[in-house]
Amino acid sequence: MNETQRALMEGERNAASDEYFGARPQIDTTDRRRVFEAGFDRAWKALLPTVCDCTTETHADGRQETRCGSDQMMRSLKTPNAALTGSDASAACGRSG
Q1: Roughly how many angstroms between the first and final C-alpha of the chain, as a whole number?
Q2: Is 50 exceeded by the pLDDT of residue 79?
Q3: Can you list the pairs that 50-53 forms with residues at least 24 positions away whose Cβ atoms lie under 8 Å?
Q4: SS3 for 32?
Q5: How is residue 27 annotated by DSSP?
Q6: How far, CA to CA in Å, does 7 sit from each of 13, 19, 73, 87, 88?
Q7: Residue 21: helix, strand or coil by DSSP?
Q8: Which residue of 26, 35, 76, 96 sits 20 to 30 Å from the alpha carbon of 84, by its own alpha carbon?
Q9: Using CA atoms, how far apart are residues 8 and 15, in angstroms rounded to an integer?
Q10: To the nearest whole number, what is the mean pLDDT of the chain?
Q11: How many angstroms separate the CA atoms of 61 and 44, rounded?
Q12: Which DSSP string corresponds to 2-13?
């Protein structure tokens, strides 16, 4: 995993963790956050190879949208957070764009 992928994963993990524990303040402790983060990291790394087939769609107005990486990953993890387009999406899978 390159630095761009790691930064993307950490950002999504932090947002997911805050959302999860924000709804459950009674269990928000350091050790439980560490367990959550470990599980998130493991799932992210396991799913990364399955979502790095980026697709580019051309809209009627000529605008192109590339989907891969974080948006597909978060859908797979059932967390509605990310939507990358263009070169950011390519960077999620370690591609230059």
Answers
A1: 17
A2: no
A3: 50/76, 51/76, 51/93, 52/92, 52/93, 52/94
A4: helix
A5: G
A6: 10, 18, 14, 15, 12
A7: helix
A8: 35
A9: 11
A10: 76
A11: 34
A12: -HHHHHHHHHHH
* Residue type for position 93: C
| Whole-angstrom distance, CA of residue 11 vs CA of residue 23 | 19
- Residue 42 Cα distances to 38, 52, 81, 85, angstroms: 6, 16, 18, 25
What pTM value is reported for the model? 0.59
Place of tokens 């949208």: 65
- Contacts of 87 by beta carbon, 8 Å cutoff, 6+ apart: 96, 97
Q: Which residues contact 51 (CB under 8 A, 6 or more apart)?
A: 68, 69, 72, 73, 76, 93
Q: Tokens representing 40?
A: 């998130």
Whole-angstrom Cα Rg for the chain: 15
